[in-house]
Amino acid sequence: MEHLVKKIKDLRNQKGLSHKYVAFKLKISQAAYCKIEKNYTKITVERLFQIAEILGTNVSELLLTNSCTVTQTNNANMPSYLEQMAHFCHNCKEQNQKILALFEGRLKELDKLIETLQHKLSTSA
Predict the structure, then answer these.
(1) Exposure pattern of 1-32 as b/e (b: 16+ CB <10 Å)?
(2) pTM of the predicted model, to two decimals?
(3) Alpha carbons 108 and 97: distance in angstroms, whole number
(4) Contacts of 5 (CB under 8 A, 6+ apart)
(5) How many secondary structure helices (H) and strands (E) does the chain include?
(6) Is residue 27 left, alpha or beta, with left meaning phi > 0 and alpha meaning psi from -120 to 50?
(7) Is the dihedral of CA 46, 47, 48, 51 positive or negative?
């Protein structure tokens, strides 16, 4: 996930935001945020969404990597490239499953809230 933390750092710098500001918005210490940018701390799906919001982008933009064009000069490296792509795809699949689970959990919470509110409305009427 080095490409992810690099994108986060680059985008933060482009926007002129300090470590301190982003850490404050995330409600964590500046040292904790620095560990995220140094790839010492794994980023949770929820934290990734928070960072994307602070940086004014979306998660998919942060997760995208630059594509690699295959030429005759790098055909020898093709097995390594394909292995890296398979690993990346596996990581993306895991991240997408986590995102989906997060949204499904939130939908269930909202369904419960709607049900509670409907019950309150029907009993107060």
Answers:
(1) eeebbebbeebbeeeeeebeebbeeeebeeee
(2) 0.53
(3) 16
(4) 36, 37, 38, 39, 43
(5) 6, 0
(6) left
(7) positive
pLDDT averaged over consecutive 10-residue blocks of the chain (125 residues)? 87 93 94 92 88 89 61 57 70 81 91 93 84
Question: What is d(CA 24, CA 2) in angstroms, rounded to the nearest whole number?
Answer: 23
Calpha distance 14→7 (Å, rounded) = 10
The position carrying tokens 């918005």 is 25
Type of residue numbered 121? L
